[in-house]
Amino acid sequence: MLIIYELIFLFMKKIRVLMISSSGALGGGPILMHTLGNGLSKEFEVFYAIPENKFFNLFSIKKDQIINISERKITFFDLVKLVKFIDMKSIDIIHAHGKGASFIARIIKIIVRKPLIYSFHGIHLKCLNSIQKLTYIALENFFSFLDSYKVLSSKSEKLYAEKSHIRLGKNHLIINNGVKHKKIKSFLNSGATNKRDFKKDKIKIISICRFVKQKNVSEIVEIANLLPDFNFYIIGYGPLFEKINLKKEKYNLQNVFFLGRQNNILKYLYDSDLYLSTSLYEGLPISIIEAMSIGMPVIASDVTGNNDTIIHGESGFLYKLGSIQEASKYIKLFSKNVNLLKSMGKKSYERQRQEFSVEEMCLATSNLYKKIYKDKKRF
Q1: For the chain, how many structural domains are there in total?
Q2: Over the range 163-187, which residues count as b (16 or more CB within 10 Å of their CB) and which as e?
Q3: Residue 19 lies in domain
Q4: Helices 76-88 and 99-112, interaxial angle, to 10°?
Q5: What is the pTM of this model?
Q6: Residue 278 lies in a domain
């Protein structure tokens, strides 16, 4: 009889989840966290521990769902606040998004004894020196026992973790990042009349990225220098902006446009023809999946995360990281070739729907939450 009552309670009670991100930047990880939270909001009560940032107002989160924490650091004051918040809101599961959030969440778990899920959102080794790498791996493995479950966003991210000797344990799974389905670009529709003359207009290439080492934005400038007949648009900002802008000025490039931070990303995607990613590594890049969702071919560096998104030669092209000649060769294939834009765009559009939908991402995460909650004493 007791088991029956427990099952009834499980189905009646909304499981309460606290999602933590230590990044205040409007990047892929925080965006994915809010997309996931919104998608699960009917089934779960979702709360957020995030740095204060005006851009998070875009996600329409109620004030009583948020607790603000410091950005990219751990403070005693934050830990005290979080412990009180978890108790006050009767949180059932903690879900850490990213490296910084994982260390905060692990300390909190020791105190509150709640199940903890850790989503990597990229394994940040390629931007570290040897000592930093060893320290990072040692800390990950030392604190690993505190994670109830680890979530990786792509097959290549899992392989990279194993290759880097990061302990995943038995309790881990891959949940592909996902985005909402969008309307396909108008010129890809059968029978549509092209508003642009691709024989006269320059092809527009867009990149959405922070100006940080991982995103390798300087390589976009190098590629653009080889392709004066193509226009390159970069949305984003970051600490390396001035350095990259100097490179643009050094080459006296008239075909590179820095657009800064933008709210209406889709507007710029619909107005562009190709998506370019030059990242050193990714988890599973949201920006590429967003481009795929409207039917845009992708040119991307053949690195962890990127190479899970597109099929080379079918929905885009993968080039060897650092080989700007190879990247420019693939981009040139689209010059005055609207049929290639159409065929690869449609394949890209179809692949997003098959592999990277927000519905599948939310379903897999929902099942994980329920599994952990049902057997929370074990976790």
Answers
A1: 2
A2: eeebbbeeebeebbbbbeebebbeb
A3: 10-178+358-374
A4: 60
A5: 0.87
A6: yes
